[in-house]
Amino acid sequence: MSAPGAVELGGGSIEPTNVAVSVSDLRIDIATTGTPVISDVSFEISRGEILGVVGESGSGKTTVGLALLGHARRGLRIAGGSVLLEGRNILELNDEQLRKLRGGVVSYVPQDPASSLNPALRVGLQLREVLEAHAADQDGGKNRADHSERIAEMMREVALPDDPQFLRRYPHELSGGQQQRIGLAMAFANRPRLIVLDEPTTGLDVTTQAHVLSTVGDLAKLHDVAALYVSHDLAVVAALASRVAVMYAGRVVELGSSDDLFAAAGHPYTRRLIGAIPRLTGGRSLVGIPGHAASPGDRQPGCSFAPRCSLRIEECEREVPALRPVASGHLVRCIRAEEVLAQAQRRIGDPIDMPAAESVAALRLDNLVASYGRHEIVHSVSFSVAAHECVALVGESGSGKTTIARSIAGLHHNWTGKISLGEEPLHTSARRRSSDIRRQIQYIFQNPYGSLNPRRTVGQIIEQPLRVFGVASGRAASHRVGEMLERVSLTASYAQRYPDQLSGGERQRVAIARALVSEPAVLICDEVTSALDVSVQAAIVELLGNLQRDLGLSMLFITHNLPLVRSIAQRVAVLHNGEITEIGDAAQVLGSPAQPYTRQLISDTPSLETAIAEVGLGEAPMDVGSGAPAGEPPVDTAPTG
Amino acid sequence: MIPAAGPDIAAAAVPLEAPAVHATSLLRRSLRLWRTRIGALLVGLLVLVAIVGPYVAPYGPSTPVGAPNSLPGGKAVLGTDYLGQDVLSRLLYGGRSILIMAVIATAAGLIVGVIIGLVAAYARNALDDVLMRAMDVIMAFPQIMLALVAVAVVGAAAWVIVVAIALTTVPRIARVARGAALPVVERDFIASAEAMGVPRWRILFVDLLPNTLGPLMVEASLRMTYSIGVIAALAYLGLSPDPNGANWGTMIQQNQIVLVVQPWGAVMPIIAIALLTMGTGLIGDGIARTAAGIDRDRSSG
Amino acid sequence: MLARIRWGGFTGFVIRRLLLGLLVLFMVSIVIFAATQALPGDPARAILGRSATPASLAALRLKLHLDQPVFTQYWTWLTGLLRGNLGTSLAAQEPVTTLLKPKLVNSSVLVAASAIVSIPLSIAIGSWAAFKREKIFDTVSSNLLLVLAALPEFVVAVVLILLLATTVSQVLPSVSIIPPGSGPWNHPSALVLPTLTLVIAVAPYVARIMRASMIEVLESDYIEMARLKGLPERIVLVRHALPNALGPVFQVIALNLAYLAGGIVVVEYVFNYTGIGGGLQEAVVNHDLPVVQALAMLIAALYVVLNLLADVATIMVTPRLRTQL
Q1: In sequence order, which residues have a C-beta less than 8 Å from that of residue A39 and are 6 or more positions away?
Q2: Which of C231, C235, C320 sits opposite A172 (nearest CB)?
Q3: C300 touches chain B (CB under 8 A)
Q4: Would you state the pLDDT for residue A552?
Q5: Distance CA C73, CA C87 (A)
Q6: pLDDT at A617
Q7: CA angle A152–A158–A163, rounded 5-degree value
Q8: What gap in Å lies between CA A201 and CA A210, rounded to an integer?
Q9: What are the extents of the domains in chain B?
Q10: Mean pLDDT lowest among A96-110, A336-350, B256-270, C288-302
Q11: Checking phi first, is residue C9 left (phi over 0); if not, alpha (psi -120 to 50) or beta?
């Protein structure tokens, strides 16, 4: 009914004159090659409304956000389309006009508050200059006294102390949450019409994140500001935004109210994405999305999601589908959207059949006290991991979970107490332990970019433990390497590649292969998915879960992501300030927590459950994306995630 | 922390069949730049002159061939110097001493400096402090000062100069090696090797060293440039193993007074030293730019 | 008394660095002394040459206290040093202090002049090259600085003489002797070429570090944020970029000033400038150990002081380090 690209929004009660910003046919290219990074993006935001933009890495969501300020990062160029702000197309403005707009009419809250505040300047000055720059634009410049009052008011709005002493601090003297609030204060300072928030809570603790989010919501409502909230975290967006745009490979693939989207999404990608999100309630396996998004240069003609879509038909690959309305206020870029919508429920995954833990403890900690220098971090922690069991260790940053993990592995030496592997007590330092003990405890690190030696091939990396522990060598070793690669869903041909040719998910798989090749008894996973996209995370957790069950491993799974626990662990220990506050069966602790800290953690965790519960849905199985007869199985046998 | 750049984009941007990028190919890649090529050409040319020169010189370095300070003509293609010796022949004889001393001194300083720097970075504790304080003591002088003190005591023997230069090169290399190694030491693949119990020396030389080669190669070419400069300067000051022999530095000093009359005696060795040091400088810069380009490609999303 | 010193905070930092500097100087003095006494070869023979008679050798050894145990020799020397007695020159038979004082003044003026010219110049060049990255100014200046940095100073000096004082043109004097009794300020034209040489020796390094530092700062998140706040470009550059870019540069400036202390040896010799550099060359050739030792200590002390100043300046420009003290 409407031409492709035309902006057609329902949502009846919103008057056109209330539109704060209107984006049409936005296109952004790589400056040197002209390859499109973003194309065909159109949407509107009304005053007082928050539009969430979700997508994974490479979807182009941050680039869209910056374009609303007329800014493109180095190497990119805004190539076409329009961004209408208060009737003016800001893409046609010159530098000076743009400058006046930024910070005044439209402002930006960046992702990493620590690096976007100037470390050499006091925060008070950084706040004041936003006011001064735009006051100067308007008239000769107001006097300073006005600014001081205004600044105090701004600080109160973001729940920060309003005394001048606080303003004299430097950014590094503030906590992450405080820094982000300063960022919010700067953004709202000149009462802009539009605010672009770029994942402002990444890297913050769950508790802090909850506070920051509520501040954002309150301020937006208070000042009647339109907001664009960019995020990879669907749960956060569900709680905050009234409408959501889903981006994939540089295009908007779905646009609608968050109620519509989470109840019944119309695009297969959105469905799969929702299915990949860990659930706090119900022990279900996670389902990842096979393959990964094509980079700007590699995008094929036709629908960009087609290679990974199980509903793919021939027509999908011919040309890019148009973004068309399937209901009032709900647009989807898929030719089979109606069929997707007809399947009303979401797939959550098979219930996990967790093996019964044995009574023999594989790993045991007794009164572990660990310190950094003279500073005690872990205060007398005791727990055990039974054979074939997976125990999750959760806590916020600074709680001591990584310290515990590294002590077990012998990487952290400054601890007292007793750690035993089976019956045998362990030495504080890995170097002093016997080769066999070292073989039995293996460690997987958080950062997939740092844990593999960039100067070695994948094959050499996986082979190293075999050589060091004297398990196998020569041809036998190569054979085992090939086997392990297949086991982690990579192919044997990966052995010749170097780490910088692999994606984050692939690197974690290599790390897993390296850890398991020497057949350890205990596997320690230290936040192994925190650096990965949601769909990749799901695939990795799926893999780990299967391996743990198949190989009968005992596993200690460390994470700050509570919902993830239900998809992999039988028991969970909650760590707070170096002490275990609660420990027990995962379903019980997370379903009906006994301790106040646990309860607070759970309530602060944004989850889709709340969003779903509000729409009132159950959990019946569905078959989109399962490889069931709805379509041909994906042709792409490319490695998962 | 989700990295701002997409891990998937970074990987997909590199075609799967592309050769991996690492430091031995750093040299090869840097040779694609014009400046590295020019630098290599210059260095190659001058090294040739220095090594082969004595075999093709028309006269000996001390053979008088004409009146002192005469302009080019007759037997002397480039004229004669203040003693009537042939400038061209002295030029061809004059590079060997400087070059050999510079190479040995830099190589020795490089080896010792790398070991100290890597050990200090890996140890990260009291050993690191002690080593770096020792380095500070040596670095309390400009390079030439230490050489001057040594020569003042012992005399301008070749070994004295080489040891002095090598000694002052060590801390400068050690600093760079340590600086390049510190961020690598923090990375998890080193921790992974430690957890496996890989012996320390193996971690140092097989895991750590290859990942620091970029900055090290750049610093090495810088050090080479300096060594050549200092040794030539010492010769200029009259402090070379053979003060009367042919030596580019000495030649400049000897013929400086007659620049107005017969410039070639001083100008030719100046050109020789200038081209040689420019060459090593260009090579170092080429490597530095290639390494920076690789880092940029890797980290951009 | 030690207990009353405040070990924390800024003053504590300065005191600690001073003590550390003194420690380094102490170790340096040991090294210098060891070098002059413990190296193979007999200093007396080296000074008097091969034709020396046993009697004169013995007399010299006595004079140099070479018969006494090493520690006593060191102690005599060190205490003398601290009292301001730098020994007696063997060649000139005069107290080193008298010999060196006028020369020290001349050299200080030269170093000061070079520093005053080169530091602002290189900061300006580096910043501008970074700001106009990869445009003409940047490409030309970067390549020019690269070439100049590679050349040894004496080569630069002689080329300057060639170009400006002898063969190509003769606008400046080719030697810069400062007669005793007057100072360099009375002979400004004599100062030009040596200063120019030293500026060329030092400026490329500072300019390149400034450029690199400024480029890194200009690509940082907080600069992007400053622009997205709508601040005028002038404020972005001067208030936001420059303070952050200068931090790493101070270290390099100190290093280069210290390098100057050694660079003057060669440069003064080239121009016959009456300074401690020229004096050092003489002393080395004559094996005049007391002079050599004294000059070495002076230069080392200069280096330590400059490094301390650089550290202090860096801390003052980097609030993060300041508050950690």
Answers
A1: A26, A27, A28, A250, A251
A2: C320
A3: yes
A4: 86
A5: 12
A6: 40
A7: 35
A8: 9
A9: 22-295
A10: A336-350
A11: left
> What's the token pair of residue C156?
């630069």
Question: Which of C218, C229, C322 to mutate against chain A (most A CBs within 10 Å)?
Answer: C229
Residue B233 CB burial class (10 angstroms; 0-12, 13-18, ≥19): buried
pLDDT at B301: 33
CATH superfamily of B22-295: MetI-like (1.10.3720.10)
Look at strands A441-444 and A424-425 and give their pairing. Answer: unpaired
- Each residue of C157-196: pLDDT tens digit? 999 998 888 877 777 777 777 777 777 777 788 888 899 9
d(CA B69, CA B85): 9
Alpha-carbon Rg for chain A, nearest whole angstrom, is 26
Q: Which residue has the tokens 């460390």?
A: A558
Q: What are phi and psi of A415, to 5 degrees?
A: -145, 155
In chain A, residues with a C-beta closer than 8 Å to the C-beta of C236 are none
Closest to C280 measured CA to CA, from B149, B48, A129? B149
Tokens of A433: 């332990």
Per DSSP, A306 falls in state: G
Range with lowest mean pLDDT among A373-377, B147-151, C43-47? C43-47
- Decide if A186 contacts A107 (C-beta within 8 A): yes
Give the residue from B206, B178, B175 showing the smallest Cα distance to B190: B206
Residue bearing tokens 């050409």? B41
Q: Which helix (H) or strand (E) holds A442?
A: strand A441-444
CA distance A558 to A339: 40
SS3 label, residue A81: strand
**Running DSSP on this structure, what letter comes out for residue B64?**
B
pLDDT band at A636 (very low <50, low <70, confident <90, very high): very low
Chain B environment of C155 (Cβ under 8 Å): 229, 232, 252, 270, 273-274, 277
**Which token pair is C114?**
């070079």
pLDDT, tens only, C200-230? 999 998 998 899 899 889 988 999 999 999 9
Region label for A176, one of left (φ > 0), alpha (ψ between -120 and 50) or beta (otherwise): alpha
- Tell me how many degrees the CA angle C145-C151-C153 measures, rounded to the nearest 5: 110
Any B CB within 8 A of C139 CB: no
Contacts of B189 in chain A (CB under 8 A): 450-453
Q: pLDDT tens digits, residue range C248-258? A: 888 788 878 87
Q: Residue B203 is encoded by which pair of tokens?
A: 């971690």
